[in-house]
Task: inverse folding
């Protein structure tokens, strides 16, 4: 049995506390009124005195013009206020969805191993189950965030503004009004609840059957797991697409991409596999998992490499087609990201493709622990930046920077993730001893 080392436990608590302080600070320090925003903008414009004086001189004596300018200025202040108030919420949202989807990616990988009746992976099943133990907690926190958004505590989802679908309002948006049957708070929350409950039910029963199989005299529980895993994968592939439209794509409600569900899937799937590899390497370094050999590690690294390439193919397909066709309502998505998010947008491609590709293409490197850990850390940071790029431009616009809120949210969820995952690993033996393929898995070499 695995015992949770006190050092790691203390480390996870430190991350949670530091993270909570960072999150709290980011909410407290966010501007409350347009007057606060005025001060921030004035501080930013401190270096542009000449330009402002000239502008003031030019505006003098034009009453109609100055009234118009005043209205425009007020609108701009409100816009920036919304962006800056969104920033702590968006930081929390990105980290919450990222960690929840890592455990969902590991769950999907586990289900695929069951359905494929893979002979190499059963020695890693308890590691996968440990990582998926985060899903109930992570999805509960995430669902609370969705409810809070639906109750208008933040402005993360533009389409939730009732003015936009009110034909009397000057803000009326014909396009969003056409989507009201699908994009409305109640239906949106009901869908979210169905997805989250479905994933968690599979997680609960597949683990229960796997543990029961250890004590069983036949393979009945194994067969049950095979059947529910097949059912889950059908449910998963449908809900995963809808989830990516609902929780990520709808922050840009005018824009859509038919490839988006696959793109999001590739991002969190490779992250989930990377975490499986990292946790396995950690346990191995502590003297656990004696049956896991370099061939198992090599296989996980092959998946990290393969899905990174798959992600790149999807990223390029989406980007190139939209860029090449240059249709205004499609291309705005990438224009915003290239103009305002240049470094994270192209940096992510280097972190998620170029770096893992150059390192993991080498067969020998796939078996070296420190190389894999380095590649894994870069892949995980790269996919965090990927989610950052998907959410931030629509919610905070050009007001982004990686500040205390972003780092605090990341540390909080990382601490929680470590605490839950490693606690779950102590609850059951690390070897599923009655799995029909366990002997093959123990002696897996190539």
Result:
């Amino acid at each position: 049995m695995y015992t949770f080392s006190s050092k790691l436990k203390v480390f996870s608590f430190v991350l949670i506390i530091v993270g909570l302080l960072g999150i709290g600070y980011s909410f407290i320090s966010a501007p409350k009124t347009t007057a606060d925003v005025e001060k921030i903008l004035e501080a930013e414009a401190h270096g542009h005195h000449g330009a402002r004086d000239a502008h003031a001189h030019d505006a003098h004596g034009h009453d109609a013009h100055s009234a118009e300018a005043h209205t425009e200025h007020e609108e701009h202040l409100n816009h920036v206020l919304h962006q800056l108030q969104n920033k702590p919420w968006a930081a929390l949202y990105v980290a919450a969805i990222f960690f929840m989807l890592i455990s969902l990616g590991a769950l999907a990988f586990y289900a695929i191993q069951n359905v494929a009746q893979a002979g190499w992976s059963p020695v890693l099943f308890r590691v996968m189950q440990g990582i998926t133990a985060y899903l109930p907690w992570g999805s509960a926190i995430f669902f609370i965030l969705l409810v809070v958004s639906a109750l208008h505590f933040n402005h993360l989802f533009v389409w939730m503004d009732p003015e936009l679908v009110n034909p009397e309002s000057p803000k009326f948006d014909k396009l969003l009004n056409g989507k009201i049957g699908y994009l409305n708070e109640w239906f949106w929350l009901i869908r979210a609840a169905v997805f989250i409950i479905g994933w968690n039910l599979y997680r609960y029963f597949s683990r229960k059957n796997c543990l029961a199989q250890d004590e069983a005299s036949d393979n009945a529980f194994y067969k049950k797991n095979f059947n529910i895993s097949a059912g889950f994968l059908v449910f998963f592939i449908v809900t995963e697409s809808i989830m990516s439209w609902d929780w990520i794509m709808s922050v840009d409600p005018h824009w859509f991409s038919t490839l988006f569900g696959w793109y999001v899937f590739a991002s969190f799937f490779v992250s989930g596999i990377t975490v499986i590899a990292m946790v396995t390497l950690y346990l191995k370094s502590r003297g656990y998992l004696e049956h896991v050999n370099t061939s198992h590690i090599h296989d996980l690294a092959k998946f990290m490499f393969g899905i990174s390439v798959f992600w790149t193919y999807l990223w390029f397909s989406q980007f190139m087609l939209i860029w090449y066709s240059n249709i205004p309502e499609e291309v705005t998505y990438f224009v915003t990201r290239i103009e305002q998010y240049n470094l994270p947008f192209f940096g992510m491609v280097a972190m998620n493709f170029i770096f893992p590709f150059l390192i993991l293409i080498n067969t020998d490197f796939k078996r070296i622990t420190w190389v894999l850990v380095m590649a894994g850390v870069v892949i995980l940071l790269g996919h965090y930046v990927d989610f950052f790029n998907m959410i931030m431009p629509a919610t905070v616009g050009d007001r982004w920077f990686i500040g205390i809120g972003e780092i605090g949210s990341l540390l909080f969820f990382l601490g929680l993730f470590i605490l839950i995952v490693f606690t779950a690993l102590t609850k059951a033996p690390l070897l599923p001893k009655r799995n029909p393929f366990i002997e093959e898995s123990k002696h897996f070499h190539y």
About this structure: The CA atoms of residues 239 and 435 lie 29 Å apart. The chain has a mean pLDDT of 91. DSSP finds 16 helices and no strands in the chain.
